[in-house]
From TrEMBL:
Signal peptide: none annotated. Residues 134-175 are annotated as: Disordered. Residues 134-143 have a biased composition (Basic and acidic residues). NCBIfam families: PRK14555.1-1. Pfam families: RNA_binding. This is RNA-binding protein. Residues 144-175 have a biased composition (Acidic residues).
C-alpha cells in the first residue's frame, strides 16, 4: 500500500483491575510496530477500582502501514465498509473496536476491548470525502487480505475460548 490516507491512527485499551496489564499491553501491541511506545495513564473507576489506560498514536506512514497490514486480517472488512457512514464522524475520524481477547492470541476481529481511531485525510475536510477515502483504503485492504489468505481458516469462529482467561472476565462493557 503506497499511499496512507490517514493523518494518524490512535489505539487504546483499558486494563481493568481484573486483568493482567502486561497481557492487555501485548494485545494492543498486536497492531503496533515494534518501535511504538505505549502511553500509560492510571485512573480510578466509579467503584474505586484501578483502571489503566494504555494507548499509542502512530503518525508516520510506515507505522500506519503496519497497523493497516494487521487490520487486513480482519474477516469483517466488508461489514466495516458497509457501515462507514456510521463509523466515520463529522471530524473525518474512522472508529473501529477490535476484540482484545482475539488480539492477545494474535487474531484480528471486531469486538470489545481495543479502540482504533484513524483520522482520515479528506479534501475538502468533510464526512463524505472521508467516507470515500476510507472506503477506497478498506477496499484495498480487503483485496490484499483475499490475495494473502489462500486457505480460509475458520476454526476460531466455532471455538469457545471463554474458559480461557487471557486478559479479562469479559467485563469490558461496564462503562
Amino acid at each position: 500500500m503506497a499511499k496512507v490516507p490517514f493523518h494518524y491512527v490512535d489505539l487504546r485499551a483499558f486494563a481493568y483491575a481484573t486483568e493482567d496489564e502486561k497481557r492487555v499491553a501485548d494485545a494492543l501491541r498486536t497492531f503496533l510496530p515494534e518501535d511504538a511506545e505505549l502511553d500509560r495513564v492510571e485512573n480510578v473507576g466509579h467503584h474505586g477500582d484501578r483502571i489503566v489506560v494504555l494507548s499509542a498514536r502512530i503518525e508516520n506512514a510506515d507505522g500506519m502501514r503496519h497497523v493497516l497490514d494487521r487490520l487486513s486480517g480482519l474477516d469483517e472488512v466488508d461489514r466495516v465498509i458497509d457501515e462507514l457512514d456510521q463509523r466515520v464522524d463529522d471530524n473525518c475520524a474512522l472508529f473501529l473496536r477490535v476484540d482484545k481477547q482475539a488480539a492477545f492470541r494474535g487474531d484480528v476481529r471486531l469486538g470489545p476491548g481495543i479502540t482504533v481511531r484513524a483520522k482520515v485525510e479528506a479534501y475538502p475536510a468533510n464526512k463524505e470525502a472521508a467516507v470515500e477515502n476510507a472506503r477506497e483504503t478498506l477496499g484495498r485492504l480487503a483485496d490484499d487480505g483475499d490475495d494473502e489468505s489462500g486457505d480460509d481458516d475458520d476454526e476460531d469462529d466455532t471455538s469457545d475460548d471463554d474458559d480461557e482467561d487471557d486478559t479479562s472476565d469479559d467485563d469490558d462493557d461496564e462503562t
